[in-house]
Specification:
The structure holds three protein chains of three kinds. Chain A is mainly α. Chain A has helices spanning about 5-20, 20-35, 40-60, 70-75, 80-110, 115-135, 135-165, 180-185, 185-195, 210-240, 250-255, 270-300, 305-325, 330-360. Chain A has 14 helices and no strands. Chain B is an alpha/beta fold. Chain B is about 35% helix and about 35% strand. Chain B is built from twelve helices and 14 strands. In chain B, strands 1, 2, 3, 4, 5, 6, 7, 8 and 9 form a nine-stranded mixed beta sheet that branches. In chain B, strands 10, 11, 12, 13 and 14 form a five-stranded mixed beta sheet that branches. In chain B, a hairpin with a 2-residue loop joins β8 (about 195-205) and β9 (about 205-210). Chain C has three domains: about 5-110, no CATH class; about 140-255, no CATH class; about 270-435, no CATH class. Chain C is built from 17 helices and twelve strands. In chain C, α10 packs across α15 (about 375-390) and α11 crosses α16 (about 395-430). The mean pLDDT of chain C is about 85. The chains are: A mainly alpha, B alpha/beta, C alpha+beta. Chains in contact: A-B, A-C, B-C. Chains B and C meet through α1 and β1 of B and α11, α12 and α16 of C.
């Protein structure tokens, strides 16, 4: 069994990793920073990251069966490969701590009010570690399965919100005088599209990998539209001003759904707690796997299970620190945004240029 | 996997685990402003002892608890001291504000409501002149929970087209907007039954006026496409009943000469249901009846707008249409000042149709 | 062999205390010894087919007898062969053969007139079918092979015999279609069987443990069947079937999870009804695994999901229950598993009594005593029924164990714990493979044709074999039929 992924699996990996936690918080970000025309901001950011993901996918299809560490070693030498591996490991560690703390805070704030934050991380990290231990191919299969369920559930729930929501809340769709605001909001939506850098650890399979860059680009556009759907329907349900009061506006928007004819399900946000959390679990597992893959490349003799355990401890400790810092999530978002631009943008683009130059002499 | 199991066992402090029978299930909350502060009167569904092995098929009884305090926090603490179990607000179906509370300010309570994840945002809300104790006592004689009774009443009114959905979540949405105008249904007890008597016109968190139910027909069509409503018109000694199916009003707003001008257009279909006499009518006569109906509808809906202008609260959400069409101008205006003087034009485009009963006079008859 | 050689062999054999029977037939200038164990030889056929002809021939001819001559011209037995290796005589006798030693010939004849008491071919007990054939495998390998041979008359059918178990020397047959089955799978299976080094193997059920990828695996990576038609279908699909002496279950490799949801009747019924049945089975699997943990989640953590009247009803039902929901569920699940085990082992005469006792204990008495709530009884009963709706009885076993993991994790963190447990189960399943075939194919990795076939099978509309098997010949027909859908 080779450690590669198919195009279909790549689609679901991108979708679930990108939307993991951000999908809950992005309506607030858009409402605050961009207003009713935020859909334009999202699509613009999706387009930008679509181009970046094409670069990463193009590199992966040029060096089939290899991850970034392997082909950067070929292109730039071992020293650069090690520097990249260390950078990506630390970057993904930060991301995983951010995701774990966000997940714990979201669950505590909305569903399990009395459970301490560290308990969420303590119980879920072994699960994420177990998933990461199984490797790229198996986690890709999990994404294939979870992705279908997540997208179906999302379509149904947001379809209902589209029907029950108030269209006046999202109008006017575009105010020309606020175009500057929409453009300025792009920097705040970058965090929603970071996650494409997980493709640096997912070697592509030999079959149809030439189509991978196009598929990746279209996936990012689809993610952009998914965000637009989520943001617009949330605003339709809750109102653009009200939404700014909530840390996790999507859940509050889902709570506004009334299904009179489904008598046994009064609280539709439970659907999010089950099916939506699948997306979060998958996303965090993927980031965990990314750390493990890079660390295993740095220490090839270390047993994989040991690496998984050590990484788990590192994430746990960082998360505990994060709970203690008041503005941790805000600080983390800033760091991840800058780090992400490097991880998803600067490094892959540089490697791509070098690869193209080497290929064409 | 073993580790996950051990850790989950270890984490089984089960902080959030609390069996449903160990909770007091609250079905209705009445919030009152008293002389000494605030009070919460809650209706709690009682779990009768005999229902265990046979399953509960009879209607549950209820008990009423009251907590008072200088602040909401103190009132809640007082309530918790009286309860022998954990108070669970997740089953609340209706929240009722007394008139005192509405005329004071409900904003702080709504802030409490917003932060509480257990509360469903889709809880129906009402206002009442009746004291909380009377409200709870009267309906329990019929062995129905007050919360359920209120909920069912509102549900049937919405289905009949006499009311549109107004939940606590909608109030929060209105409160967070730049302009905050909305209606809260007013209920009273009539022969022990909860009855809609009108609406409280709210601006922000305080009540600005009262709209009786007789003068409130037409309000629904400003908010939503409603179920068909029946109207009857007088025509040459004949009473004709029509079922009117109206779409949601379409409003065009503009700002001209320092004044807001709103053109409201209603469209829909009116179907002849029956006539008061055994008589056949022609197409022309039907159209004339239709014109009378349109005039009548126009008057009713204009009356609804005029009432809102008189009260000074735009609870018809006309500001939304203006905001959508003139976002830049809207930002500069203070809607609460300009609305009462706004110029309103109304078009009624109602298609008149024959119904299923054949009243049409055939040629040659 | 010379008489001295024969005597030496006989002395050696006697010294082993095998308790075999010697029958001497003298002839001119020599004698023939027939060696056999009488308990496993057909004592009617022995004199008729072997001894009597030899005696008559020896009396009529004046020449010394030769083994080849006797085998070809004298004895009437259908299955016999010439051997020269004297070291194998012992194992031939122990296998139930009759060994004919000749004092005037170094060669000897091995005659197969084995007669072992065995069950008749009977109806299936585990996988009953309404419309399909009902002949099932028995414990005798030869009978089982006959059931396959009469269905598959293809010249490329291969039956390779192997032997496992140092003491039991159990015969194992590896059966496949040479021009369909993947060479990799066949080679791997033969390698694993050949690599078994153990003293005893009693049938295929034990053999299964040696053929799995990992010794610590919960999920069955080899399929099992007691039905000969199912085994033949698997062979034609490109799988390898393994049969062994002493076992009435055939092993099928590779095996995927979706195949546990196939029932024989799906092939014979209308394809839409087959689809409906398969969907029902997946729902049954969900019911086996999830409802009791969701009961805990709703009662303990998320009671706000339900409408008010159901919440009040739930409180009423639980009013007299002594235990917390988690303990209540664990106790009842353990009790039901206990009853299930007891019903399997109990002698038939007191089976009814156990059923009545179980119903009384768990039913009225436990509810009245406040041990369990009625709702939970309904849920657990539904789980029990659902477990019988899944055609592959052995496929349910992992989920009966994993259910407890799900219950415990839900008990600690509500629906979040439920999702974590589900993730652990799913990733474990996704990471398995059966002889190179992903266990969760065709769901992941996804294949559209295989996915459609996994849900809805129709012989007329399935021109290709399942793609995940990577067979040599992927097409089942070379004729175009109007109902066939091209890939």
């Amino acid at each position: 069994m080779d450690n590669t992924i198919t195009n279909r699996q790549m689609v679901f990996i991108l979708f679930l990793t990108l939307t993991s936690i951000t999908i809950i918080t992005i309506p607030k970000t858009i409402a605050e920073k961009a207003g009713v025309g935020g859909w334009a901001t999202l699509l613009l950011t999706a387009l930008m990251f679509g181009l970046l993901v094409m670069v990463i996918a193009s590199l992966n299809s040029m060096y089939r069966g290899k991850m970034l560490y392997d082909y950067s070693r070929e292109l730039l030498g071992k020293a650069f490969a090690v520097i990249f591996a260390v950078f990506y490991s630390l970057y993904f560690l930060m991301v995983s701590a951010y995701l774990c703390t966000s997940m714990a805070s979201m669950l505590k704030a909305n569903f399990l009010l009395e459970t301490p934050l560290w308990a969420f991380v303590l119980v879920s990290l072994p699960v994420f570690g177990y998933v990461a231990y199984k490797g790229v191919t198996n986690i890709a299969r999990l994404f294939e399965f979870y992705g279908v369920i997540f997208i179906l559930a999302m379509t149904v729930v947001h379809g209902v919100m589209l029907y029950q929501g108030e269209t006046d809340n999202i109008r006017p769709l575009f105010v020309p005088s606020e175009t500057g605001k929409y453009l300025a909001a792009v920097k705040d939506t970058i965090i929603g599209f970071l996650g494409i850098e997980v493709l640096t650890i997912t070697p592509f399979s030999l079959k149809r990998s030439k189509k991978a860059p196009r598929v990746a680009f279209l996936t990012l556009i689809a993610v952009g539209f998914a965000y637009v759907l989520v943001v617009e329907t949330s605003i339709m349900m809750v109102g653009i001003h009200e939404i700014t009061f909530y840390e996790y506006p999507l859940i509050n928007a889902i709570r506004q759904i009334v299904l009179h004819y489904i008598e046994f399900l009064r609280r539709v946000d439970i659907v999010y707690l089950t099916l939506g959390v699948m997306g979060i679990v998958a996303g965090i597992s993927m980031v965990y796997l990314a750390i493990v893959e890079y660390v295993c490349r740095l220490f090839p003799r270390a047993a994989r299970w040991l690496v998984v355990v050590i990484v788990g401890f590192a994430i746990f400790l960082l998360s505990l620190e994060g709970f203690g810092i008041l503005d941790f999530r805000h600080i983390a978002v800033q760091l991840i945004t800058y780090g992400g631009l490097l991880a998803a943008g600067v490094i892959p683009v540089s490697l791509w240029i070098v690869a193209k130059v080497k290929r064409h002499g | 996997m073993t580790l996950a199991l051990c850790l989950s066992l270890g984490a089984m402090g089960c902080w959030d685990a609390s069996a449903v029978e160990d909770k007091d299930i609250v079905t209705a909350v009445v919030v009152d402003k008293t002389d000494s502060g605030y009070s919460f009167t809650v209706e709690i569904a009682s779990i009768s002892q005999g229902g265990g092995s046979q399953g509960g098929t009879k209607a549950p009884e209820s008990k009423v608890l009251k907590g008072e305090g200088k602040t909401f926090v103190a009132a809640r603490e007082s309530l918790e001291r009286k309860s022998d179990k954990l108070i669970d607000l997740s089953a609340v179906q209706s929240v009722v504000f007394t008139e005192n509370m509405l005329y004071d300010d409900i904003t702080q309570y709504m802030q409490r409501f917003r932060h509480n994840p257990a509360y469903r945002k889709t809880v129906y809300v009402a206002g009442t002149r009746v004291t909380p104790d009377d409200l709870m006592k009267a309906t329990s004689e019929n062995n129905t929970l007050v919360g359920t009774s209120l909920y069912q009443t509102f549900l049937s009114l919405i289905k009949n087209g006499q009311m549109y959905e107004m939940t606590m979540g909608d109030i929060l949405t209105s409160l967070s907007c730049e302009y905050k105008g909305y209606l809260i249904p007013a209920v009273d007890l009539s022969d022990g039954e909860i009855t809609l008597i009108g609406f409280y016109a709210m601006e922000g968190g305080a009540c600005k006026g009262f709209v009786p139910v007789e003068g409130s027909s037409g309000i629904v069509h400003f908010h939503t496409k409603s179920k068909p409503i029946h109207y009857s018109v007088e025509y040459k000694g004949l009473e004709a009943a029509f079922a009117v199916d109206m779409k949601k009003a379409v409003t065009r707003g503009e700002y001209r000469d320092g004044k807001v001008r709103l053109n409201i257009r209603f469209s829909g279909k009116a179907t002849l249901q029956y006539l008061s006499e055994e008589k056949k009518v022609t197409d022309e006569e039907l159209n004339e009846m239709g014109e009378t109906l349109k005039q009548d509808l126009r008057e009713r809906h204009m009356e609804a707008v005029k009432t809102s202008q008189r009260v000074g609260v735009d609870y018809l959400d006309l500001h939304e249409a203006f905001r959508i069409q003139n976002p830049d101008i809207y930002k500069e205006l203070d809607w609460s000042q300009v609305y009462p003087d706004a110029e309103i034009n109304m078009d009624m485009d109602v298609e008149i149709r024959w119904g299923t009963i054949d009243y049409k006079e055939k040629e040659g008859e | 062999m010379q008489s001295k050689g024969m005597e030496a062999i006989l002395s050696y054999l006697r010294s082993l205390n095998i308790t075999f029977t010697e029958r001497t037939v003298p002839y001119r200038r020599g004698e023939m010894k027939a060696l056999y164990i009488k308990q496993i030889v057909d004592l009617t056929a022995l004199p008729d087919q072997v001894l009597k002809p030899v005696v008559q021939y020896a009396a009529s001819t004046g020449k010394p007898l030769k083994a080849a001559q006797v085998m070809n011209d004298v004895i009437y037995a259908a299955d016999c062969r010439l051997e020269t290796d004297t070291k194998k005589i012992q194992s031939h006798i122990l296998e139930g053969m009759v060994v004919l030693l000749f004092s005037t010939d170094p060669q000897y004849v091995v005659v197969n007139i084995k007669k072992v008491e065995h069950r008749n071919v009977s109806e299936p007990e585990i996988t009953y079918t309404v419309r399909g054939p009902r002949d099932c495998f028995v414990e005798t390998l030869d009978v089982n092979l006959s059931l396959i041979r009469y269905r598959l008359k293809d010249p490329s059918l291969r039956v390779e015999m192997m032997e496992v178990g140092k003491r039991t020397k159990t015969s194992v047959a590896v059966i496949y279609m040479e021009d369909i089955a993947s060479n990799t799978v066949v080679t791997e299976i033969k390698k694993r069987i050949g690599g078994i080094s153990i003293d005893s193997v009693w049938g295929t059920s034990e053999l299964q443990h040696f053929l799995q990828n990992s010794k610590h695996n919960l999920f069955p990576l080899l399929g099992t069947t007691e039905r000969s038609d199912w085994a033949c279908e698997s062979i034609v699909e490109g799988r390898v079937v393994i049969l062994a002496d002493g076992g009435h279950i055939a092993l099928i490799a590779p095996h995927i999870f979706a195949e546990s949801m196939y029932a024989c009747d799906d092939r014979y019924d209308n394809k839409f009804f087959g689809l409906f049945s398969r969907i029902l089975r997946y729902m049954a699997l969900y019911i086996v695994l999830c409802p009791s943990s969701q009961y805990i989640a709703i009662v303990s953590f998320h009671s706000y999901i339900l409408p008010i009247q159901y919440t009040v009803l739930l409180s009423q039902l639980r009013q007299n229950v002594l235990f917390s929901p988690l303990i209540e569920v664990l106790l009842l699940e353990l009790l039901v598993e206990l009853i299930r085990e007891a019903l399997m082992r109990v002698p038939s005469k007191i089976g009814t009594a156990i059923g009545v006792v179980g119903a009384i204990i768990i039913g009225q008495a436990a509810t009245s005593a406040g041990v369990f709530s009625p709702l939970l009884l309904i849920i657990v009963s539904a789980e029990l029924l659902a477990s019988f709706a899944i055609p592959d009885y052995f496929a349910v076993h992992p989920f009966r164990i994993l259910k407890f993991l799900v219950i415990l994790m839900t008990g600690s963190m509500g629906l979040f714990g439920f999702i974590l447990a589900l993730t652990v189960i799913l990733i474990s399943m996704f990471s398995l493979n059966s002889f190179g075939v992903p266990y969760m194919a065709p769901f992941a990795p996804f294949d559209r044709y295989d996915y459609r076939r996994a849900l809805m099978f129709s012989r007329a509309a399935s021109p290709y074999r399942q793609q995940y098997l990577r067979t040599k010949d992927g097409t089942r027909t070379d004729l175009y039929h109007e109902n066939m859908e091209p890939k």
